[in-house]
Amino acid sequence: MADKAYEYMDWPRIEAIVYGEEASPRDVMQPRVTEDGVLIQGFFPGTNSAEVVVGEKSYPMTLEDEAGYYAVMLPLKRIPKYRFRVIRGSRKETFYDAYECPCQITEEEERAFCAGVYYKAYEKLGAHPGTCGEVEGTYFAVWAPNAISVSVVGDFDRWDGRRLPMHRMPMSGIFEIFVPGVQAGASYQYEIKIKGGNVQRKSDPYGNGTQGAPSVISVVTELGDFSWQDEAWMKKREGFASREVPVSIYETDVTEWKNSGELVGFLKETGYTHVEFHPVMEYLDRSSGGYSTSAYYAVTTRFGTAADFRTLVEDLHQAGIGVILDWTPAQFPRFDAGLEKFDGTPLYEVQDPAMAVHPMWGTMLYNYGSPMVKDFLISNAFFWLDEFHVDGFRLDDVDAMLYLDFGREAGQWTANLYSSNENLQALEFLKHLNSVVKKQYPGILLIAQEDGLWPQLTDSVENDHLGFDYKWSGGWTKDLLTYLEAEPENRKDHYDQLTLSMMYAYSEHYVLTLGKRDVGCREEFLKKLPGSSKQKAAQLRAAYAYLTVHPGIKMTAPDGDEKTEMKEYLHDLNELYRTYPALYSMDGNSDGFEWIQFTSSDENIVAFLRKTEKKNETLLVVCNFSPVSYDSYHVGVPFAGKYKEIFNSDNGKYGGQGVINARAKASVQEECDARKNSLKLKLPAYGVAVFTCTEEKIVGKTVEKAKETATEKTSAVKKAVRKVTARKKKTSVKKQ
């Protein structure tokens, strides 16, 4: 039978397997029925002998090639259930045939991947523990179209790239294999033979686990099922698509918290609607500062397991809090096992070497012209939305995606086909991403960090724009911080930085941020502010308050160990924001804002109105950024009426001096700020005061109506009396 086996064997391709150059080993090595029996083959380098075990019976295999290639012809008519048993030194190893299991990726899925529309690619690519038939193991799949061959290596095959060569799918260049016996927890990489014969090892781009940075070894991870109970939240979050609801985001790193209960408790206590996490994906620290994602589909080991993160998201949703992730589809880090020249060619990165590396960070820029690269990134968004129920993404470094010349000097970049600096491929990618994500997951928040001047970033894809929900307003933050860091006597020279934002506030839908990237921790921020410790604290409160009352959704990053009075302050700010529609319902409409004072540079005071379509929902806001307090500050008001203070950053319960307006104040008919009516109020140093406005006419109309009714009743009574008197006179005349 050994001679018969030899006759059926494809020796040119077997030689390619032996030399590690066969891209489709399943075609050669899968069991098959012949006229003379069932041919079983196996490549087991470094073994002394091999046999096929069928039930209780074993069939010795013939060593057909000294490199370790064996074969046997079983005297059977059908392929049986079988295993290999090999002797390696003094040890016996028994295992199932990796090439018996067929490809797990369908032709339809492969076509979708090649077209860039296989949004669930993460379900097949990567490493997935499961079964093939009745055999347990792990299915591996990786995209490396220009490789000569690819093998999966790990503890399970002693990191020997000869033992488990993967099978290449002809259309896409995906290499795949089901390896029996490999379980969750196994370490692995892909060994890739590139053109020229060199061999390199790469981490799994779609892998769900790692050994943890700085290690770049992938780990087979079982995501498993999770019993989500957040249906009510998932329905509620659809309302965020309207941009007419309050969004207050807390920025943090999950590693800053002892446990999820502590974080959830802080967020409930302070009243945030969302939390934004610094990278949850595995990442490497950049030498230039910041981070770069190194494993897009893996929860960082700095935090814990996938199950840990799912539990955290569930707990947050049960508390009514959404989850936003930092996400970096702009660039990826350079390291030997990373995406750079993954199959020996520029695969994930820009094809032009001169444009592939970003000069500011030394990272690689993605090739958005490749449908498969775009699919990798869009599928990653779907992965976090599906598997972890996250509620949005803040896209880092969008300007590096949009502008070909971003961070480059003249002569360091290549213009597009229209001789301009727009990255046309990145534009199409962002439109594609935003449109499909919004269609599939209404209410998801897509936030762009873009510090350039790209127009209408938050207009819809249907209008041929990029379709983000919000833009990170770096300009607003920079202006405010520059103003606050100036000495009080010099702030008048920077006064326009308080008011400039209203020149462009409605050109986009903005996120206003005083986060860790902007101000660092509380201590770092306070150090930059002038004055005593109490004055610094007052200015910090004023900064948070100004952010809250300014048009735009909010993001702040106070420390998790804030004192009780600061926690109460944050809660009351968020409560103010959520309670009064004037602070959010017309953020996208310039009719929702009106200046009262915006030229008081010597006083360092601004005053304005926040409005809705309902006049009685108007709020008056007065902000004082000077160290001078006022007992009777004169400010114009929109109409005659009552003005009641509903918030004051100087309230004693927040640690302030208590310069507040305890009672409602009536306006007077005295011109101020080019308005007929005005108000005199207490205004604290470094303080922000907010007032509701009740128009006098509303009360007056009620009084007038009562007067009119009373007059009508009096007239009716008088008329009745006259009639009675007239009758009496007539009766008296008749009697006479």
TrEMBL record:
<dbReference type="InterPro" id="IPR017853">
    <property type="entry name" value="GH"/>
</dbReference>
<feature type="domain" description="Glycosyl hydrolase family 13 catalytic">
    <location>
        <begin position="245"/>
        <end position="594"/>
    </location>
</feature>
<dbReference type="Pfam" id="PF00128">
    <property type="entry name" value="Alpha-amylase"/>
</dbReference>
<dbReference type="InterPro" id="IPR014756">
    <property type="entry name" value="Ig_E-set"/>
</dbReference>
<dbReference type="InterPro" id="IPR037439">
    <property type="entry name" value="Branching_enzy"/>
</dbReference>
<dbReference type="GO" id="GO:0003844">
    <property type="term" value="F:1,4-alpha-glucan branching enzyme activity"/>
</dbReference>
<dbReference type="InterPro" id="IPR006047">
    <property type="entry name" value="GH13_cat_dom"/>
</dbReference>
<dbReference type="InterPro" id="IPR006048">
    <property type="entry name" value="A-amylase/branching_C"/>
</dbReference>
<keyword id="KW-0321">Glycogen metabolism</keyword>
<dbReference type="InterPro" id="IPR006407">
    <property type="entry name" value="GlgB"/>
</dbReference>
<dbReference type="Pfam" id="PF02922">
    <property type="entry name" value="CBM_48"/>
</dbReference>
<dbReference type="Pfam" id="PF02806">
    <property type="entry name" value="Alpha-amylase_C"/>
</dbReference>
<keyword id="KW-0119">Carbohydrate metabolism</keyword>
<keyword id="KW-0320">Glycogen biosynthesis</keyword>
<dbReference type="InterPro" id="IPR004193">
    <property type="entry name" value="Glyco_hydro_13_N"/>
</dbReference>
<keyword id="KW-0328">Glycosyltransferase</keyword>
<dbReference type="InterPro" id="IPR013780">
    <property type="entry name" value="Glyco_hydro_b"/>
</dbReference>
<dbReference type="Pfam" id="PF22019">
    <property type="entry name" value="GlgB_N"/>
</dbReference>
<dbReference type="InterPro" id="IPR044143">
    <property type="entry name" value="GlgB_N_E_set_prok"/>
</dbReference>
<protein>
    <recommendedName>
        <fullName>1,4-alpha-glucan branching enzyme</fullName>
        <ecNumber>2.4.1.18</ecNumber>
    </recommendedName>
</protein>
<dbReference type="InterPro" id="IPR013783">
    <property type="entry name" value="Ig-like_fold"/>
</dbReference>
<comment type="similarity">
    <text>Belongs to the glycosyl hydrolase 13 family. GlgB subfamily.</text>
</comment>
<comment type="function">
    <text>Catalyzes the formation of the alpha-1,6-glucosidic linkages in glycogen by scission of a 1,4-alpha-linked oligosaccharide from growing alpha-1,4-glucan chains and the subsequent attachment of the oligosaccharide to the alpha-1,6 position.</text>
</comment>
<dbReference type="InterPro" id="IPR054169">
    <property type="entry name" value="GlgB_N"/>
</dbReference>
<comment type="pathway">
    <text>Glycan biosynthesis; glycogen biosynthesis.</text>
</comment>
<keyword id="KW-0808">Transferase</keyword>
